[in-house]
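Async update (no meeting this week)

Hi team, since we skipped the sync, here's where things stand on the single-chain job. The sequence we agreed to prioritize is pasted below, unchanged from the tracker. I ran it this morning and attached the output directly underneath so nobody has to dig for it. Comments welcome in thread, and please keep replies under the output.
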Amino acid sequence: MSTQKAAEIAARFDRLPPSRTIWTMVILISLGGVFEFYDLFFTGYVAPGMVESGLFKPESLGIFAALQPLAVAGFGTFVFATFAGLWLGTLVFGFVADRFGRRMVFTWSLIWYMICTVIMAFQTSGFAIDIWRLVAGIGIGVELVTIDTYISELIPSSERGRAYAVNQFITFSVVPVIAFLAYALKGSHPFGLEYWRVVILIGSLGAVIVWVLRRNIPESPRWLARHGRIAEAEAIVNDIERRVAIEKGVMHLPKPEAVVAEQEGTGRYGEIFSPRYRGRTLLLSIFNMAQVIGFYGFAAWVPTLLIHRGIHTTASLGYAFVIAIANPFGPLLGVWFADKVERKTQIVGGLLIMGIVIAIFAQVSEPWMLIVLGVLFTLASNVMSYAYHGYQAELFPTRVRARAVGFVYSWSRISAAFAGLAIGILLHGYGVPGVAAFIGVSMLIGIAMILLGPATRGRTLESISH
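Output:
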């Protein structure tokens, strides 16, 4: 394998000017993420309906009934199963995108969780629903890792921040749709099914569209080159360069900058624990355990948190819908500064605002204040989200990027699995203030970890990992 050739291909990519050709690829990959985010975020919005159906009573949960205290955390077993599946997908199967390619894994993980979620929607016991949710979560976890890796390798360094902002603007746009469907369908039985089953099925059936669209997304030339498939990598880059040149109306594109070659080898799991990368691996692992407590601790429980602030169940879904509308606007705002402000600064700023806002949220009860604070929290968390998704993919070399992202990201999954149960317990024993304290401390830990990491803005992937 020629590492020099791989470096030359990477340099050719990094010198490409902004173009419709490149951004079309970002949009198509992001559309895959739309249905993955739909699948991930419907949890909080279908919770009231699933609980009311009696699915999470001890007699319906089988072996999951051992997860105590069920009086307050019955639905927590569903949250636990979701993130346990995500953990398995990111940790155990994160390597598959390094082994078999970004494009193939992107496609098949989508099909995996779509099929499993359809099966889950027709189950009639809490135990069966939790099992199929766990299996579906494996596919979602693999998809998350692959999307982050894919985007980092297809986008020039000068536009990577904006690419992640656009990616999450598109994917988070589906969250208000879920919230609206849950609110509009609450109490109804479309097609003779409970409303929450229909909400779940809509997202799964929509994912079929991505199966067709994925044909227009090429394999990552960086990945191909690292695996010795130089001719295929050059063919893809040549085609992209040709289309960009036609689009820009030029005969010649800018000359590639100096080449920085990665070291030889196809990559191995142990490399992320080598002296060069273990500091980054440790920092990002701890960060992921902390950030997810705020991000999903609020997003997955917002209707329930509102109920505990004195809002009626039906009204809580309406207010949650208003808050959910803010989801895509955090990344949309980020489009303007994603590549102008250091990634670390964006992450720390988002975490700080989240910690402050949740502390105030726990003390107020006026509906308009709860909605305003919910919107602010959502905006801050989604700026933090797109920034760290890009940041963690930048810190490792192509040969182990999916493995590394999968490993560090897996800690957020296992953390969220237990945090879901913990939040149920805290709500029962200490109310929303207890949950707020839990989230606030977690945000401070996340800030400390990111401050210790390297800067990445405007640097090529190869120079960051060199």
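Quick observations from my side:
Residues 38 and 203 are 6 Å apart (CA to CA).
The mean pLDDT is 84.
Reply here if anything looks off.
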